[in-house]
Write a structure and sequence with these properties.
Helix content is 41%, strand content 19%. The protein is an alpha/beta fold. It has one domain: Alpha-Beta Complex (Spore Coat Polysaccharide Biosynthesis Protein SpsA, Chain A), CATH 3.90.550.10. Strand 2, helix 3 and strand 3 form a beta-alpha-beta unit. It is globular, with a radius of gyration of 18 Å.
Length: 262
């Protein structure tokens, strides 16, 4: 848990570039009724203390079978800056994230998962780092997960590096901030877990700059994760090789797109 004094110092030290006046916070969610209210409140609490002229919180309910959408609707009555996008069916994490990113109107766009596994109090440092780059992405410096999941993530990163030349520490970390220009400039086709990789691959290939910062990662306390399901992994590989084929047909050659640590 971050001490209040530490959080206050982070906020007071935030320096937002003159061309950035608003922020969109995107929260993909699937069956997160135990977490969604707290996730939204934490997002609003931190952003309300930052020197933005405006903000919005976009929740994407990806076909939840629980009360996720109902709870968000209730909060909307209290705060019109909360927006809910509903998928009638569970399409996939990538589809959910893509819906939110495409709907975002802020000068910068921040996304994280609604499962409370990340500390939103660390957002101010990411915004400050954005002054010198186009994207700031997190990496989990301590991952309270089973060895197999960490090993799989390592192997996935190696594969992305070999095929696409993208060298980052934690490509799937769900704690990223983008300038709106990045999202407007890239195509997003993935509907599964490959979406994180696709965004960075396409943005890096255009030449947008990336900076990496460490983030705190907590064990999930409520709800269930679906990221390690075989069908999710299979879809990610399918989308990976599809994108690789598309880029190769266009004459794509891997180049070393390295993210820089701040």
């Amino acid at each position: 848990m971050v001490e209040l004094s530490t959080t206050t110092n982070r906020i007071s030290e935030v320096k937002i570039p003159d061309d950035i006046r608003s922020i969109s916070i995107v929260l993909p969610a699937h069956d997160e009724e135990e977490n969604i209210i707290e996730a939204i409140k934490r997002a609003i609490d931190i952003v309300a203390q930052l020197p933005f002229e405006d903000y919005e919180v976009i929740v994407i309910d990806d076909g939840s079978s629980d009360r996720t959408a109902e709870l968000v609707n209730a909060l909307q009555d209290e705060n019109p800056k909360i927006e809910l996008i509903e998928h009638s069916d569970n399409i996939g994490y990538g589809a959910s994230l893509k819906s939110g990113l495409r709907a975002a109107n802020g000068d910068i766009v921040f996304f994280t998962d609604a499962d409370l596994q990340f500390d939103m109090n660390e957002l101010p440092e990411f915004i400050t780092a954005l002054s010198n780059t186009d994207m700031v992405i997190g990496y989990r410096f301590r991952r309270p997960e089973h060895f197999i999941r960490r090993f799989n993530a390592y192997c996935w990163g190696i594969l992305i590096r070999v095929l696409f030349g993208l060298k980052v520490k934690d490509i799937d970390c769900a704690f990223k901030v983008f300038r709106q220009e990045v999202l407007q400039s890239i195509q997003m086709d993935s509907i599964g877990a490959f979406i994180n990789s696709e965004i960075l691959i396409r943005a890096g290939d255009i030449g947008f700059g990336i900076v990496e910062l460490p983030v705190t990662h907590f064990p999930r306390k409520a709800g269930n994760s679906s990221g390690a399901k075989p069908k999710v992994i299979f879809k990610a590989f399918k989308e990976l090789f599809k994108l690789y084929g598309i880029l190769k047909r266009k004459g794509y050659h891997p180049r070393q797109n390295r993210a820089y640590s701040s």
